[in-house]
Amino acid sequence: MVAASSKGIGLACARALLLEGAAVSLCGRNEDSLRRAADELSSDCPQARILWTRCDVTDPSALSKWHEATCENLGVPDILITNTGGPPTGVLNEIDDSKWHAGFEATLLTAVRLTNLVADGMKRSGWGRIVHISSVVAFDPNEMLAISTTLRMGLRALTRLQSDLLAPHGITVNSVLPGHTHTDRQMHLARVWSEKTGDSHASYFEKMSREIPARRLAQPHEISDVVAFLCSDRASYVTGESILVDGGLARSM
């Protein structure tokens, strides 16, 4: 099960897992985007087993229906990738309660709810892989991303707590923390930055690249390759970790 997988890092994760031989269940809010993603993946992997389900990951009943559809069509899932769009942007004094609630539902509660849905099936099989897609701001606070910074740091703690609970059952739980990556989210942040500064989108991406030791933004597949490794047997002794994939951006030790 790969959440929010019609585009960006979620779609890249679905593709990486398909190429490793997994059957993949996609979800997203937009039916047309999901259908296009499934067609694209089917073209890349003609023998692949792919299911897609329209699902708002902030809706607990929709998550349950997605899980049920996955079990019925593909079998009990032994891999879960939690993923959402970024929470509302803004500095602390610009954020009202509704934005905090929306961010909490999407960023933290989705990871809690999905993990709870798949955990029993993984326990029965004695094997499972759970990976939360998070963000570099879990290590390096970003003033413009106050909600994301706060909640992603909480997701690091959740990852460790879930891993403690599930490791005895052969289930690993890790988080992958992308840095600046070429996705729709980055285009949104570029627009926000341009509105604040009056500078162009190109200036935003030039600025981002200068801040990264690798001197470029990541491509989604560079994030999903790490996710695929964490979902493999080769990563059986890696759990409870929050792993930066950021081109050296984070300065925290």
Describe the structure.
The structure is a single chain. By secondary structure, the chain is of the alpha/beta class. The protein has 2 domains: 8-179 and 220-245, NAD(P)-binding Rossmann-like Domain (Rossmann fold, 3-Layer(aba) Sandwich); 180-217, no CATH class. Helices cover 50% and strands 13% of the residues. The chain has helices spanning 8-19, 31-44, 60-74, 97-125, 146-166, 184-197, 201-211, 220-230; strands at residues 24-28, 50-54, 79-82, 128-133, 171-178, 242-245. The strands form 2 sheets. It has a 4-stranded parallel β-sheet, with helices on both faces. The protein is globular. The mean pLDDT is 95.
Describe the structure using short key phrases.
253 residues, alpha/beta, Rossmann fold, 2 domains, 4-stranded parallel beta sheet, two-stranded parallel ribbon, 8 helices
Short description:
With 253 residues, this protein is of the alpha/beta class.
Topology:
Elements: H1 8-19, E1 24-28, H2 31-44, E2 50-54, H3 60-74, E3 79-82, H4 97-125, E4 128-133, H5 146-166, E5 171-178, H6 184-197, H7 201-211, H8 220-230, E6 242-245
Parallel strand pairs: 1-2, 3-4, 4-5, 5-6
Helix pairs in contact: 1-8, 3-4, 4-5, 6-7
Major beta sheet, specifics?
Answer: 4 strands, parallel
Distance separating the two termini: 32 Å
Rg over C-alpha atoms, rounded to the nearest angstrom? 18 Å
Highest-level CATH class of the largest domain: Alpha Beta
Structural class assignment:
alpha/beta
CATH architecture tag of the largest domain: 3-Layer(aba) Sandwich
Task: Report the strand count.
Answer: 6
